[in-house]
């Protein structure tokens, strides 16, 4: 039992750390951090997202997304379509600079996903993501019990 726990937690932590490391290394020329990259990726992949949408897609809290969006807007990657007081509900769009970097991010993500899928059949890849989803859902349910 102890070995199973150690293997599970070590592998999950390694995966998370590797993802952060890849994001940070690939985008250091742009002075972007991991949360910035996620925002740019989802804005590039979708149209008309709000800060609320990004919180859900990036699985980040409101404060983290807000800081990321402030940085991205200040540095010319995104624009807020509306200057409403309710900025959190306003649609965000990528500037020309944001589109350029968003494409590079999307291309890099595609390449990394291709690399990690190398040697897996399509059926194995689908099963892997299904299992990962089951583990995520179950862990989230367990964690939510502590919030009740």
Structure described in brief:
The protein has helices spanning 2-26, 34-45, 51-58, 62-74, 96-117, 122-147; strands at 78-80, 92-94. The chain is mainly α and 148 residues long. A two-stranded antiparallel sheet has the order 1-2.
Topology, please?
Elements: H1 2-26, H2 34-45, H3 51-58, H4 62-74, E1 78-80, E2 92-94, H5 96-117, H6 122-147
Antiparallel strand pairs: 1-2
Architecture overview:
- This protein is mainly alpha-helical.
- Helix content is 72%, strand content 4%.
- The protein has 6 helices and 2 strands, in the order H-H-H-H-E-E-H-H.
- The protein has helices at 2-26, 34-45, 51-58, 62-74, 96-117, 122-147, and strands at residues 78-80, 92-94.
- A two-stranded antiparallel sheet has the order 1-2.
- Helix 2 crosses helix 5.
């Amino acid at each position: 039992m102890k070995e199973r726990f150690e293997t599970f937690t070590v592998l999950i932590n390694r995966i998370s750390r590797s993802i952060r490391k890849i994001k940070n290394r690939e985008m250091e020329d742009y002075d972007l951090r991991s949360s910035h990259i996620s925002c740019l990726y989802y804005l590039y992949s979708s149209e008309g997202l709000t800060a609320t949408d990004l919180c859900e897609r990036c699985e980040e809290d409101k404060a983290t997304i807000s800081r990321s969006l402030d940085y991205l807007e200040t540095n010319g990657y995104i624009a807020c379509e509306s200057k409403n007081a309710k900025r959190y509900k306003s649609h965000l769009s990528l500037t020309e600079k944001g589109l350029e970097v968003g494409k590079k991010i999307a291309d890099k993500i595609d390449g990394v996903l291709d690399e990690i899928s190398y040697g897996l059949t399509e059926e194995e890849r689908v099963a892997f993501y299904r299992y990962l989803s089951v583990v995520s859902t179950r862990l989230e349910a367990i964690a939510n019990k502590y919030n009740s």
